[in-house]
Write the structure tokens for this entry.
Amino acid sequence: MPEPKTFTQEQVDQLIAEKTKSVLTQDKVDAIVQDRLAREKAKYADYDDLRKFRTDHEKQLEQVTQKELEAKKEYEKLKEGWLTKEKEYSGIISKKDSEITDMRISSALMGEIAKQNAYPDETLALIKSQAVIDKDGNVIIKGKDKNGIEVTNSVEEGIKQFLTIRPHLVKANKPGGGGTAIGTISGAGVGEDDLDSLNNQLQQAMLSGDSKKKIELRAKIGAALAQKKATL
């Protein structure tokens, strides 16, 4: 039987100190780890609540966004419909305004054309494009003076100037007495039928582009009108 190992007191104290030191160090380490774990766990104690809050918040944002998008689409749809209607109504109003303007101009021109004893349809068709309504609401006729400068005239003066250079558009007056057209251009008098015929011939020449015939007929109409005035 081997003899038991003997230690000196110094060796025993050293072993006890090392053992105690080792145990205390491990306990301390474990305590530190547990403390840290506890503190970290405490930090995230409400993690689930936070995550739920975020999820709910995201859902609410999605719902708000969806509602805004739907509202915007509805607004755009209504706006598009309104703009379409506005364009339609504007077109109708513009058309009516144009028709009213055209009627006012035609009425003013026709009245004066009748006063100046001109052929209504032909004269109106030729002069109407020169007539406008000014800022004061009056019908005026645009033209040019002898220098080529643009001027405006009243309806009466404008039509008068217009007919002065277009005598073929003026009707011949019936002579007094029995009211029957008499004579020819070279005779004692000129009847309305003669001027009507000359005007018709002149219009045909204008349509056909016969310049020589137009000059000839205008001369005859001028002479006829002069002769007619001389007999009145």
Notes: The two ends are 181 Å apart (CA to CA).
